[in-house]
Amino acid sequence: MKKNNTKRKEAYAKVDNNKLYSLTEAISLAKEVSFAKFDETVDVAFRLGVDPRHADQMIRGAIVMPAGTGKKVNVVVITSGENIGKAEAAGADLVGGDDIIQKIQGGWMDFDRVIATPDMMGKIGRIARILGPRGLMPNPKLGTVTTDVEKAVKEQKAGKVEYRTEKTGIVHVPFGKKSFEDSALMENFKSIAGAIVRAKPASAKGTYIKSVVISTSMGPGIKIDTNDVAALA
């Protein structure tokens, strides 16, 4: 523990909290000060000038990371008929209907995403209280309620990430791993920033992107110049 504390102090000492870094500098520095033994996730936090209490200012969406996420995603598809075969062919980890719903009701939660076809949503209502609090409830806006299960499964497997505004107006999005090349992290970041900028509500007043901070799982936060972010987006 003492060794980890020393590494943590050394890492935090390398970051100037009064400086706004360019994205290139920030990504390089985030990897440099990552001190954990595992392959840390790289995350970005956008603090936005929105009030999530108003429905029209709640920002939520999903985007496929161009360079992937570096994480294996276990995908469950709840469907029926010919879509079962399509989902299996696309690479879903488990496909079924009532049997999967019963399995989840019994406590099984060994998955990361749930995709469903519209005809099954009435039955999925029985497990809404289980899936909802965990952010796993299928949603048409996120592309997880669809008739095109093949496309949905492939997107999730390729690295589709969801994002939404927290109560404080902050959006957290993981966009890769420490082991990624800087160029891959840059590519993923640009996609996220573009999505956030395009999602600006018409009713949002004042400064929209107030601050942007990136960090690894265990590393210090690194502030990025918001002008640099806007230019990239």
Written description of the protein model:
- The chain is of the alpha/beta class and 233 residues long.
- Helices cover 34% and strands 21% of the residues.
- The protein has nine helices and nine strands.
- The strands form three sheets. Strands 7-1-8-9 form a four-stranded antiparallel beta sheet. A three-stranded parallel beta sheet has the order 4-3-5, with helices on both faces. The protein has a two-stranded antiparallel ribbon with strand order 2-6.
- β8 and β9 form a beta hairpin.
- α3 packs parallel to α7.
- The chain is globular and about 55 Å long.
- The relative contact order is 0.26.
- The mean pLDDT is 91.
Q: Indicate the mean pLDDT.
A: 91
Helix proportion: 25-40%
**Spatial ordering of strands, largest sheet:** 7-1-8-9
The strand count comes to 9
User: What fraction of residues sit in β-strands?
Assistant: 15-25%
Q: What is Rg?
A: 20 Å
The coarse overall form would be globular
- Give helix and strand order, one letter per element, not per position: HHEEEHEHEHHHEEHEEH
Quaternary state of this entry equals: single chain
Structural class: alpha/beta
Number of helices: 9
Poorly predicted sequence stretches spanning 5 or more consecutive residues: none
- N- and C-termini, Cα separation: 41 Å
Q: What does the largest sheet look like?
A: 4 strands, antiparallel
